[in-house]
Design brief:
nine-stranded mixed beta sheet; DNA polymerase, domain 1; Rossmann fold; binds magnesium ion; binds adenosine-5'-diphosphate; globular; 15 helices; two-stranded antiparallel ribbon
Length: about 350
């Protein structure tokens, strides 16, 4: 008896749901009719403003939606309040909340990949470092995070057939470990013109965390003008860690880091560039339970990086990389090596 009742109840629920769905559909088709499709159609955007926005590269709704009122008011020479309204309108028009799996699939179709130089490492990353995503390498000092950064800065310039994207690199160096000589060495190993390769790596030394954030917030123009396809931040956490050391400051540090990572994710998304960040972890042998090598800046970083790789030193030139909690890749490990030529696979007999 009890079962029959629940059956009936379920049927009623289903009917209710269908009714709601139908009503939703009606709403949707209404929205469809007045849908805004270009920046010029946004309320508050006159002809002149549209022109200025276009000149500054805000030529599509996504770029406007992802902008801040301040930057928009500067480029379009309008008030910040007007700018804010335009941004909200762009966001509404885009219906930023949900998209169909088909849309997501289409987006994933335009994803580009940059080879790391090692087929094994590319393999665990699903074919290399992805555009539209943030990839984080964390590991102890000397585990080769910066070597991978240099290699990617070179490899992004390779043509597609060779595993690159024919683009340039924006390299934010926070620890003073960027070495043009190493870029030259790696370029030569790939028979590329070293001068040309060096010209396509735009380096900025960040002196404090505010400067680091600013370099990212102001990157839009560079990305468009210089055909940037890769953004490197080596390391993303070092300055934050040294500036905010007290216990009481942890929350504000995390908040600021959070915002910074958001900006990075947004750049990756809007401009379809790859973002590679490094995060140094301390070996913490004092920890008996859990993973002793868990990143100090911890789990908020984990939440943002689409791909997280843990690298550690092995014998001599060899390094071990393990991919962790990726949304679409199995947790797996591989071995690669760092040689004078750069990042390479380990030869069969060495394995
Ligand atoms: N020119 C080079 N030739 C060969 N190996 C190098 C070269 N430069 C650096 N390495 C290797 O890379 C290691 C440093 O890796 P690095 O990327 O700086 O580590 P981190 O993870 O601290 O950024 C060195 O210990 C060395 O093994
Ligand atoms: Mg380093």
């Amino acid at each position: 008896m009890a079962e029959k009742k629940t059956d009936e109840k379920e049927k009623k629920e289903e009917k209710k749901e269908e009714k709601i769905k139908k009503e939703d559909k009606k709403e949707d088709s209404k929205k469809e009719e007045k849908k805004i499709k270009s920046v010029a159609e946004l309320p508050g955007v006159g002809e002149k403003t549209a022109e200025k926005l276009k000149d500054a590269g805000y030529d599509n709704l996504m770029a406007v939606a992802a902008a801040s009122p301040k930057e928009l008011s500067e480029v379009a020479e309008i008030g910040e309040q007007t700018a804010a309204k335009i941004i909200i309108a762009a966001r509404d028009a885009l219906e930023m909340g949900y998209e169909t799996a088909l849309d997501v699939f289409a987006k994933r179709e335009r994803i580009g990949r940059i080879t790391t130089g090692s087929k094994a490492l590319d393999g665990i990353l699903g074919g290399g470092i992805e555009t539209g995503a943030v990839t984080e390498f964390h590991g102890a000092f000397g585990s080769s995070k910066s070597q991978v950064a240099h290699q990617l800065a070179v490899n992004v310039q390779l043509p597609k057939e060779r595993g690159g994207l024919g683009g340039a690199c924006l390299f934010i160096d926070t620890e003073g470990t960027f070495r043009p000589e190493r870029i030259r060495q790696m370029a030569e190993a790939l028979s590329l013109n070293p001068e040309e390769v060096l010209k396509n790596v735009y380096v900025a030394r960040a002196y404090n965390s505010d400067h680091q954030c600013l370099l990212v917030d102001k990157a839009n123009e560079m990305i468009r003008e210089k055909n940037i396809k890769l953004i490197v931040i080596d390391s993303v956490t070092a300055l934050f860690r040294s500036e905010y050391s007290g216990r009481g400051e942890l929350a504000s540090r995390q908040q600021k880091l959070n915002k910074h990572l958001h900006s990075l994710q947004r750049l990756a998304d809007v401009y379809n560039v790859a973002v590679y960040i490094t995060n140094q972890v301390m070996a913490r042998p004092d920890i008996l339970f859990g993973d002793p090598t868990a990143p100090v800046g911890g789990h908020i970083l984990g939440h943002f990086s689409t791909y997280r790789v843990y690298v550690r030193k092995s014998k001599g030139e060899t390094r071990i990389a393990r991919i962790i909690d990726s949304p679409n890749l199995p947790e797996s490990e591989c071995v690669f090596r760092v040689t004078p030529r750069g990042i390479e696979d380990v030869e069969e007999k060495e394995k």
